[in-house]
Design goal:
The structure holds two protein chains of two kinds.
Chain A lengths: L2 E8 L30 H26 L5 E5 L1 H10 L1 H12 L3 E3 L9 H4 L1 H19 L5 E2 L8 H9 L4 E5 L2 H4 L9 E2 L6 E5 L1 H8 L14 H9 L7 E7 L3 E2 L2 E2 L4 H13 L5 E3 L1 H7 L5 E2 L15 H4 L2 H11 L2 H7 L2 H9 L3 H5 L9 H7 L5 H28 L1 H15 L1
Parallel strand pairs in A: 1-2, 1-8, 1-11, 2-3, 4-5, 5-7, 6-12, 9-10
Chain B lengths: L6 E5 L10 H15 L3 E6 L11 E4 L3 H8 L17 H9 L16 H18 L4 E5 L4 H11 L2 E6 L3 H4 L7 H13 L2 E4 L2 H11 L6 E3 L15 H11 L3 E6 L8 H14 L3 E6 L5 H10 L6 E5 L3 H10 L2 E4 L8 H8 L4 E4 L4 H4 L4 E3 L4 H13 L1 H16 L3 H18 L1
Parallel strand pairs in B: 1-2, 1-4, 2-3, 4-5, 5-6, 6-7, 8-9, 8-11, 9-10, 11-12, 12-13
Helix pairs in contact in B: 1-17, 4-5, 5-7, 9-12, 10-15
The chains are: A alpha/beta, B alpha/beta.
């Protein structure tokens, strides 16, 4: 003891291009953009692949080969994998190689990295199911542990996920929930039967994810040896230290020049120097350790900002208006049974769109600005709402056709037949 | 910071209510906050006006006392100085030709051109500076720079040249007046410190006036949260019937000159009206491009949707901000842009040109390149279309503007004074 549990989140949204009000009813290519670098999904994916995914995957593969005790876990959003398959299949292959080592676990999540659990439980279920199929197909892997978008979590979510058959779930080790307790133990969420809960140790995780390259930080520079010493301090008073972070920490948030790759390269060795330490995947952690007690999450927590609540996505009138209008289309869009429309509607659900609209400038303003490809939250809202207005028109158009009934349906069927030829 | 017993000799050329633009408002806000820090301001105006204030002492360069001292030397110094801040030489001549239509009641004497007036103000400042006691000199914009320099020469005190606008801003895309440029450059060169109202203006100063960056300090303008007290609704009532009929009101307010970019506003208006005919555009202000803009509106066939209010001040201005659903500042080059803060205080959302100083300070406004009329129209339409967007801009904006205060600007100026006095 303690065990180290690494989990890396990997996600890229379909950013909405600058979409002006004049285009409503005319153009439907919301996610296509090759002009503006900061809103071109393909260009961003390529950039991050070169800075992070490819070099980090290469390094992790080396580490897994070198240290048979080393283990990690990933959570991929479905739309991240879709974008990779479309633009960079070689990166998919490099992830497959990691998974093939048998020491890389994949977690379950919503396909669209969405806030659906908060807005529509049914849609949430559909997206988790869709993600499961994708992971099975691509990696031949069946996740046992669930991780909701941005570690958003409450009692109700734990109950729901338990019903879906998962053994474990991840969340943020928020102080207001833990109080005097430590995040370095396995817990059981209130109102559940046996599902186990792993909590992020946000101090140690953020030392790597946020503070690593910060020259004003008193611990700068952080070496693997120093970090291992901090881990060793927990010997005897913790079961599992959960280091949860964005995978983009390596090479993208923390640039190569900060020495982050060198740090990662040395870390398993330094941690394993102490014979009491070991690495576990989330499933191993929850099977290895019993719950030390029940934790109550009456309100939502997340891993975002200092508030660690939903305010990064759902606090101002822009965000509330946008998400309400989006989910109001649920029944209508599903009724069209039109895959393209449903896909577009779901891409709008990705949490990033709402994060871009955040106006909490003062405490976490800089972090938000770093992650915002739009010039301001207002511009993010404008493009989102304009594009959504267009989607709404398309849905209405289809709905009318569906209601008017069979003649159109037949025409559609005929069209499909023609396509097959 | 401890309160100070500093005495500042400050040269300006307008002061509310006798102001034609943001400069007088800025001098008012700054001196009021300086006074709160214990700074004594002797505010010099080129000619005697019936201004009263409980926080600054006024000095008039044309008062009998100074004229007497001058009269033996140069004759025409006896004449009043007629100066308005935003005047070009050509415009000045035009005003002189139509002297009777100007707000001045008296039959005022004038020199043959604006530069002579400026130099004369300078010469008067010289005698004034000999008479007064002060620790530091602060001059606002080019028309008072020669006065500041003369005062520095006789007193050997440090000079702060405060740049609210440069000739490059006033010229819009047009030609820079070489004489004005020379006076500006000389003033900044002779000053011990140059204060720029924005980083945007600092860049202009460094790029075009050969002043080293370390000599230029940025002091953003501010606004007093109580700037607009209770507004009478008499003026806004004029718009109630239009609003009741379902029209939205989009306002622009400022001098109608090349610099202010009203032509871009009108072009955006035409695009907006194609998509939403229930919009009325208000152009508040006057200026040398007025006729051209009126013609442009007629040519575009939107005369029934664009209203010209003429120059507004005081109550009328406050009321029009409140009546508007949206305020647009389409400036080609705006050193700061105080009207943006005024609109935010009034609870009216703002679209502001990126070519402005205020866009550096304000986050809760939409920003647009002045030439991108499609985007300007897009933003106008979206604010009118999405209620939550308007609501959020207003809610966040009115919180934000509370923090952009003159107190901060005064603290920065005081700090500059203290450093200069220490070095001198």
């Amino acid at each position: 003891m303690p065990s180290i549990c690494f989990y890396f989140q990997i996600h890229q949204p379909y950013r909405i291009r600058k979409y002006r009000v004049f285009e409503i009813g005319k153009k439907h290519d919301y996610f296509e953009n090759n002009l503006e670098d900061n809103l071109s999904n393909k260009k961003i994916l390529e950039k991050v692949a070169n800075k992070c995914y490819l070099p980090a995957n290469k390094l992790l593969l080396e580490l897994l080969k070198k240290h048979p005790e080393f283990k990690i876990s990933f959570s991929f959003s479905g739309i991240f994998l879709d974008q990779l398959e479309e633009h960079l299949p070689k990166v998919v292959d490099s992830f497959k190689k990691l998974v093939d080592t048998g020491r890389v676990e994949i977690l379950s999540e919503t396909y669209y990295h969405s806030l659906s659990f908060i807005l529509s439980k049914k849609e949430f279920g559909r997206q988790v199911e869709k993600h499961k199929k994708k992971i099975k197909k691509l990696f031949n892997f069946e996740p046992k542990v669930f991780r909701n978008t941005e570690l958003i979590f409450n009692n109700e979510l734990a109950e729901e996920v338990e019903k879906m058959g998962y053994e474990g779930i991840l969340s943020e080790g928020a102080d207001r929930i833990l109080d005097w307790r430590s995040p370095n133990f396995v817990y059981k969420p209130k109102e559940t039967k046996k599902i186990k809960l792993l909590l992020k140790n946000y101090r140690l995780s953020d030392d790597i994810a946020f503070r690593f390259g910060e020259k004003t930080w008193k611990e700068y520079p952080l070496t693997a040896e120093k970090f291992a010493r901090w881990i060793n301090k927990h010997n005897g008073n913790g079961q599992v230290i959960n280091l949860f972070m964005d995978y983009e920490t390596f090479g993208e948030h923390q640039w190569e020049a900060t020495g982050i790759f060198e740090f990662l390269k040395q870390l398993p060795h330094e941690i394993l120097k102490n014979r009491d330490n070991n690495f576990v995947t989330p499933t191993e952690a929850i099977r290895k350790y019993d719950s030390v007690g029940e934790l109550d999450f009456p309100d939502f927590v997340s891993w975002a900002d200092t508030e660690r609540d939903l305010s990064a996505w759902l606090s101002n009138p822009l965000q509330k208006d946008a998400i309400t209008k989006l989910y109001a289309l649920e029944d209508e869009v599903l009724a069209t049974k039109n895959n393209k429309l449903i896909e577009d509607w779901r891409r709008f659900q990705t949490s990033d769109h709402f994060y871009y609209m955040c106006t909490k400038w003062f405490l976490d303003g800089d972090v938000h600005k770093y992650f915002n490809p739009y010039e301001s939250p207002y511009e993010a809202f404008i493009s989102f709402m304009n594009a959504l207005s267009d989607l709404k028109l398309r849905i209405r158009e289809k709905s009318v056709r569906v209601k008017k009934g069979n003649p159109k349906k037949k025409i559609n069927k005929i069209k499909k037949l023609k396509c097959k030829k | 910071m401890a309160d100070s017993n500093l005495r500042v000799l400050m040269f300006g050329w307008e002061f509310p209510p006798f102001n034609s633009g943001g400069l007088g408002t800025a001098c008012y806000g700054l001196t009021r906050s300086l006074a709160k820090r214990g700074v004594e301001v002797l505010f010099v105006l080129p000619r005697e006006l019936n201004v009263k204030s409980d926080f600054v002492k006024f000095k008039f360069a044309d008062s009998k006392k100074y004229k007497k001292m001058m009269s033996s030397k140069i004759k025409y110094f006896r004449k009043n100085v007629m100066i308005r801040p935003y005047m070009t030489d050509a415009l000045y001549r035009q005003y002189v030709d139509n002297a009777s239509t100007i707000l001045l009641k008296e039959n005022f004497p004038y020199a043959s051109n604006l530069y002579l007036e400026v130099l004369r103000y300078g010469a008067m400042a010289k005698t004034l500076a000999k008479e007064e006691n002060f620790d530091v000199i602060h001059a606002h914009d080019w028309l008072s720079f020669p006065a500041g320099v003369e005062a520095k020469n006789v007193s050997k005190k440090s000079l702060v040249a405060h740049v609210h606008a440069t000739e490059f801003d006033r010229a819009g895309n047009g030609r820079v007046n070489k004489e004005v440029y020379k006076i500006e450059k000389e003033g900044m060169k002779r000053a011990d410190k140059v204060v720029a109202v924005s980083n945007y203006t600092k860049k202009t100063i460094v790029d075009n006036y050969e002043i080293r960056p370390s000599k230029v300090e940025v002091v953003h303008n501010g606004i007093d949260p109580d700037y607009f007290g209770k507004s009478s609704s008499r003026f806004s009532n004029n718009f109630q019937s239009l609003k009741k009929a379902g029209n939205k009101i989009v306002l622009s307010l400022g001098r109608i000159t090349m610099q202010k970019g009203i032509d871009y506003f009108i072009r955006a208006a035409r695009i907006v009206l194609e998509h939403n005919p229930k919009v009325i555009f208000l152009v508040a202000g006057s200026g040398d491009m007025e006729q051209k803009i009126i013609n442009m509106v007629a040519e575009l066939g939107i005369s029934d949707k664009v209203f010209f209010t003429g120059f507004l001040r005081g109550e009328e201005q406050r009321a029009v901000y409140k009546a508007a659903d949206l305020f647009v500042v389409p400036s080609v080059s705006e050193p700061f842009g105080l009207t943006v803060l005024e609109s935010m205080v009034s609870g009216t959302p703002v679209i502001v040109s990126k070519q402005s100083g205020v866009s550096e300070v304000v986050r809760n406004a939409l920003k647009v390149d002045f030439w991108d009329v499609d985007e300007m129209a897009n933003q106008i339409l979206c604010i009118l279309k999405y209620g939550s967007l308007e609501k959020c801009l207003v809610a966040e904006g009115s919180q934000e503007v509370k923090k952009i205060s003159w107190k901060e600007a005064a603290d920065k100026c005081l700090n500059i004074y203290q450093n200069l006095i220490y070095q001198n």
